[in-house]
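Re: Re: ligand-bound prediction request (bumping)

Still looking for help on this. To restate: I need the protein modeled with fe (ii) ion bound, output as structure tokens. Inputs repeated here so nobody has to scroll up.
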Amino acid sequence: MERPIAYDKLAREERFVRKRARDIAELRMAQGLSPMADLASRESIRERVHGILVGELQAMEGAGRTVCDFPDAPWEFTLDMARQVWDESRHVEIYLGLLEYLGGYVGEFAESTILWRCACAEDAAARVAGVNRGLEGLACDVFNQLIHIARKIGDPVIERAVDFVLADEITHVRMGSRWLNELTKGDPDRRRQAIAFQETIDERFNLGGVRLDGAHEEVGISIAKEARRLAGFTDEEIDKLVRSTQRSPVY
Ligand SMILES: [Fe+2]
Ligand SMILES: [Fe+2]
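Reply:
Sorry for the wait, this slipped through. Here it is.
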């Protein structure tokens, strides 16, 4: 089997529209908007929900790819990744429902495949560090903020739906921490490289100052310290992420 699948070969129905992440951000900035949709209005929440939907789709594809790419990994690892495919497929369904609830439709906004491309690391340890700890950590931030905003605007549908998804993402981060440790046991170099890969992803998704440690209403993406603690990040790791957001280059 060819591995990894090139980002432009992901199977999609015709209604999906694909664009490079950088091009989407540049187009938005040319219109005087932030690089990614904020949560300030129902319209921008709809756009954010569309972005999350395609992210969930790619998370499902990434976890499935990991099942195939590492046939010699411990079977519990494969089982965890297969469970994750199932979880992510439910997330896709939940976000499809939320998109419809918000009056949107698939293809209303462009899909970038940046998450998938991050999920194509060659080493299984790097992949779980980058995807399950980096990207799913980002999901914890984004979902926690969305839950908070939904509660504030009095929308229990969004609040509860996203809360169900967040509970799963917390377990995905924990899986990542477990397998990062187990796969790199006795191999500090491999561990260092996996963590370095995760840090490049964290840095990239700070989005040049969009992700910050701040009030949910005031920053583009707020760091979910409590959810991250529940997910097994240490205080030291959370502090390190907060520090990294303070020195990110402009997108
Ligand atoms: Fe998910
Ligand atoms: Fe996930």
